[in-house]
Amino acid sequence: MRQTLAIFRKDLLIEWRTASRTVALMSFAFIVLLILSFAIGAESSALQLHAAAYIWIAVLLSSTLLLDRSFRVEVEAGALHSLLLGPVRPAALFFGKALANFVQLLFLGTITIPLVIVLCDATFQGQVWVMAVALILGTAGLAAPGTLYAAMIARLQGRQLMLPLLLFPLIVPVLVAAVKATSLAMLGDPMNQAEAWLVLLLCFNLIYWCLAGVLFGRVIES
Amino acid sequence: MEAVVQTRDLACRYGARWALARVDLEIGAQERVLIVGPNGCGKTTLLRILATLEPPSRGSLTLFGADPSTNALEARRRLALLGHAPGVYEDLSAAENLRVLADCAGRPVPDVDAALRIAGLENRPDPVRRLSAGMRRRLALAVLWIQQPDLALLDEPFAQLDPGGIARVGEAIRNLPGAVVFASHQVRHAALLCDRAILLDEGQIRWSGAADQAEDAWRALHIERGQL
């Protein structure tokens, strides 16, 4: 646990020191939202209807940059070997980095919401807590498999292309559930469906976090 | 003398090429062993295997009396590797790197000031990204020094260093507490710090003897190959 927290603190410290890259990541998410809103046009009902999907598309596309970077800092000057020989347990390394990625994705998701509200003229007709839980579980569901795959491809050429190719098919269930829950939070939930989607998100999170935690040791040592 | 490293018929293969073959080695607790040999002869591979970063393809490896393949963490607690890369975070300062790496490994807070003095980096609070290659090399040695390992594995510790840096790093290596195994092309400097040496060629030990004879053995290999 102590090593997990140390890795978590270390990753956030590095992000803090490289704030310009974080700003670039947020700008990227903003540009994605802007392009989507331009592509749909000025029809505000269509924008409002799909606003939840835009939030998650922006988070998903930005996440590939963030996740790729999270392991690039480990391999660019060989710090990963220093950690492994530290010795840091592979499980602690995974959970520390996945938690740090989760916090950053959650932050990114949080700042996209007001942008979507402005760009899509979106409103909240559902429950805010559903939105908050969907955001937490959705970003957590991206962070665990994303961290595993980022570690897997960290030393490969063309890893920026490989990451979405590997990650996107795997997280389709999380994405669908997160979009549905977010959409119900924004457009209203007269049939009380949101909880079912949140439970589904929770189940996928349990599977992803446990499986990725178990597999990470093999990935990082090979 | 207790052996910290024991290898029997150790071999490592990358595809069809054997990077190491039939390496038998025994290194005592306080021994300092120099590995010399031409580029690509298997020095780095041998150090990576001893550091448990690479599994041998054949043969046996014993570290501190145990097989590291069954409990690598236990062996890693007692060894440290200075590889080609500095093994630090480019966006953090030298002092932050020393603290962060100790924190992640669960070690007590190290004497960062002493380590920075050894590396000659006490007045460099800027990120590692802005340090020269030689300074990064010295920082990597400081990271290793704070671990005070029972087995230090050093891959070209004098690379990219100026004469002052070589003297500084040499002094730091001399003060390391346990066994030291290091690969270097700077045979003359390195031999002064070692008890014995081995000459690797095409993955095999071609010669083994006193460290002060390493340069002659190295020269003889060059003559044999018609390179001198």
Biggest beta sheet summary of chain B:
6 strands, mixed
Distance between the termini of chain A: 24 Å
Total beta strand runs of chain A = 0
- Biggest interface, chains and residue tallies: A-B, 24 and 32 residues
- Give the averaged pLDDT of chain B, no decimals: 88
CATH superfamily of chain B: P-loop containing nucleotide triphosphate hydrolases
Strand content of chain A: under 5%
Q: How many structural domains can be distinguished in the coordinates of chain B?
A: 1
> Which CATH-level-2 architecture of chain B?
3-Layer(aba) Sandwich
Q: How does the helix and strand content of chain B classify structurally?
A: alpha/beta
Indicate the low-confidence ranges of chain B by residue numbers. Answer: none
From N to C, what is the helix and strand string of chain B? EEEHEHEHHHEHEHEEH
Count of alpha and pi helical runs of chain A: 10
Percent of sequence in beta strands of chain B:
25-35%
Helix content of chain B: 25-40%
Shape descriptor of chain B reads globular
- The SSE order of chain A reads HHHHHHHHHH
In short:
Chain A has 222 residues and is mostly helical. Chain A is 85% helix and 0% strand.
Observed structural traits:
heterodimer; A: 222 residues; mainly alpha; 10 helices; B: alpha/beta; Rossmann fold; 3-stranded antiparallel beta sheet; 8 helices; 9 strands
Compile the SSE list and pairings.
The complex is a heterodimer of chains A (222) and B (228).
Chain A: H1 2-17, H2 19-40, H3 44-49, H4 51-75, H5 79-85, H6 90-120, H7 128-152, H8 159-170, H9 172-187, H10 194-221
Helix pairs in contact in A: 1-6, 2-4, 2-6, 4-6, 4-7, 4-8, 4-9, 6-7, 6-10, 7-8, 7-9, 7-10, 9-10
Chain B: E1 3-14, E2 17-28, E3 32-36, H1 43-50, E4 58-63, H2 72-78, E5 79-82, H3 94-105, H4 112-119, H5 133-147, E6 151-155, H6 163-174, E7 179-183, H7 187-191, E8 196-201, E9 204-210, H8 214-224
Parallel strand pairs in B: 3-7, 3-8, 5-6, 6-7
Antiparallel strand pairs in B: 1-2, 1-4, 8-9
Helix pairs in contact in B: 3-4, 3-5, 4-5, 5-6
